[in-house]
Amino acid sequence: MSLVSIVKCGSYNIDEVYECVREAVDLVGGIKEFLRPGQNVLLKINLLSATPPEKAVNTHPSFIGACVRLIKEAGGNPWVGDTAPTDRLKGKDVFDITGIREIVEKEGGEIINFSRSGFKKVKVPYGKEFKEVYLAKPCLEANVIVSLPKLKTHQLTFLTGAVKNFFGCIPSSDRLRAHSLAKEERFSQAVVDVYSVCKPSFAIMDAILAMEKDGPSYGDPVKLGLLLASLDSVSLDIVASQIIGFNPLEILTTRDALERGLGPSSLEEVKVVGCRIDEVKRPDFKKPATYRGRIRRTLIRIFTPFGVRFFRNFPAVKSSECRMCNICKENCPAGAIKMNPYPEFDYKKCIMCFCCYELCPYGAIYIKRNWLVERFGLF
Q1: Same domain, residue pair 298 and 153
Q2: Strand partners of residue 153
Q3: Which of 227, 259, 280 is the last residue of a domain?
Q4: DSSP secondary structure letters along 152-201
Q5: Cβ contacts of residue 73 below 8 Å, gap of 6+?
Q6: In Å, how far from its chain's centre is CA 227?
Q7: Does an H or E element contain 26, and which?
Q8: Is residue 335 part of a domain?
Q9: In this structure, are 234 and 311 located in the same domain?
Q10: Phi-psi region of 219 (alpha: psi -120 to 50; beta: other; left: phi over 0)
Q11: Is residue 69 a part of any domain in this protein?
């Protein structure tokens, strides 16, 4: 059986979080299951943008600090890493702006920015979309890799969890290549390709404050008050998706990982310890607009060749929030955006990958639907 622990945690007080993290890890066998003294441990966090912790965009600094403390006390050398951009206006990287660097260094850990440590080309055995990728060098140099995701929704994969978290281990060029695949299924397969070469030993999920609705950047924060832990990232995502009201097989990264044998042999192979799922389940958790449209996506495939875009979700801009930074244009894999002076979208070219929405640092891009669909909740 693959064990997944669920532990309640009421706040981000670092001492409380530390005790809860230790309990969650102990419930699935303890830290000695994956760590020996002296080993270098890469804690792969979810660090998407320079936003405050209360927005639930990034893995919370106190949660990260608690995990660093746990690794240090077990004799490991904790590295905290992700691909962190530099804020063009402030001239600092996101580790600094979010306060993560301060708390990690206070707890005795080391910050590693993948953008500066570099990437190395690796082959992806049995890859479906990627036969090779450029992988962050720390992923290849660490003795142990641990996923520290934030529980959030996502426009393409529906859940940003322990598997999707490793998408941040490849450079922007490879991420754009994956987004250019345009279809949820193919994008999810590319994510699993990356996960398959990272080979994490453990996963601990920050679900104290989660994100619902239109994640991963500008959804709504919602307090769940939970931590999850497992030796298997796929199993952890299976349980996390059930807590927020998904069928696990609706999470395409989970389904693809199971098909490849990268997780448990079946859903029945996952055993929950600690709190029961039915104790903490949130069926009212709001899903992304893209999820609500399974019938709509079928109609899109039927009608789009005829020019009918009635059922589409599409990006739009709030000019009052836009600072004309060009990030949306520079990261559009379809070349569907031009600045005039604010972003203008060519919807004939737009592949609905929502990179612009995900990467906009100011919340100026939002997801819009046809007004009749929005008004009457069609599909």
Answers
A1: no
A2: 159
A3: 280
A4: EEETTTEEE-TTGGGGGGS-HHHHHHHHTT-SHHHHHHHHHHHHHHH--S
A5: none
A6: 16
A7: helix 14-27
A8: yes
A9: no
A10: beta
A11: yes
Confirm whether pTM is higher than 0.85.
yes
Joined tokens for residue 45: 């966090």
Total structural domains within the chain: 2
Q: What CA–CA distances, in Å, run from 278 to 4, 118, 245, 251, 309?
A: 14, 44, 11, 20, 40
Half-sphere exposure of 255 (CA within 13 A, CB side): 16
Mean pLDDT of 254-260: 96
The tokens for 103 are 């708390």
pLDDT tens string 164-199: 999 999 998 899 899 888 688 999 999 999 999 999
CA distance 266 to 55: 35
Q: Which residue has the higher pLDDT, 309 or 366?
A: 366
Pairing type for strands 144-148 and 202-212 reads: parallel
Nearest to 373 by CA among 302, 305, 313: 313
**Residues with Cβ < 8 Å from 266, sequence gap 6 or more?**
258
The answer to the question of residue 203 being in a domain is: yes
Q: Is 326 left (phi over 0), alpha (psi -120 to 50) or beta?
A: left
- pLDDT tier, 275 (very low <50, low <70, confident <90, very high otherwise): very high
* Mean pLDDT for the stretch of residues 272-285: 97
Place of tokens 């890469």: 42
Residues 28 and 160 in one domain: yes
And the tokens for 55?
């927005």
Residue range(s) defining the domain that contains residue 338: 293-376
From CA 124, how far away is CA 306, in angstroms rounded?
A: 38
Q: For residues 92 and 38, state if they share a domain.
A: yes
Residue 89 pLDDT greater than 60, yes or no: no
